Amino acid sequence: FAQKDVFQLKDLEKIAPKEKGITSMSVKEILQSLVDDGMVDTDRIGTSNYFWAFPSKALHARKRKLEELESQFAESSQKKEALQGSIEKSKIGREDTAERAALLKELAALRQKKEQLKAEIDKYRECDPDVVEEMRK
């Protein structure tokens, strides 16, 4: 960003150790990781590879990311509001009353009875004539 110029790899291998204290052996690896992360642009012109990074690109990338995050936030806020409204609508008619409590208690008792009956049916399943017939076949 500081020089706002275009460089070749050999130029960067000379400049980086002097100005930034990066060993010349690791310049290529670091540069490749920056290219992979999209922080440095590269292009092949003829037989040479050129590398550059301008501050305006980083600024525009941050602006795009900010706009994207703001739109996601707005969508999430709308979803939250819709879900809150849905919760409020679903609460209508489900107020805790004595009648509702009695019905819920009855429902729980009936479910427990159903489970007991299923267990009893499973217990006598081997004496079922259809099952015995299947075993004979």
Full CATH superfamily name of the domain at 6-53: Winged helix-like DNA-binding domain superfamily/Winged helix DNA-binding domain
Radius of gyration (CA) equals 36 Å
Distance between the termini: 84 Å
The shape is: elongated
- Helical segment count: 5
Largest sheet: 3 strands, antiparallel
Q: What does the average pLDDT come to?
A: 83
Give, in order, the helices and strands.
EHHEEHHH
User: Level of helix content?
Assistant: 55-70%
CATH topology of the domain at 6-53: Arc Repressor Mutant, subunit A
Structure summary, number of beta strands: 3
Strand content: 5-15%
CATH class of the domain at 6-53: Mainly Alpha
Q: Per CATH, which architecture of the domain at 6-53?
A: Orthogonal Bundle
Class inferred from helices and paired strands = mainly alpha
Strand line-up in the sheet with most strands = 1-3-2
Pick out the low-confidence regions: none
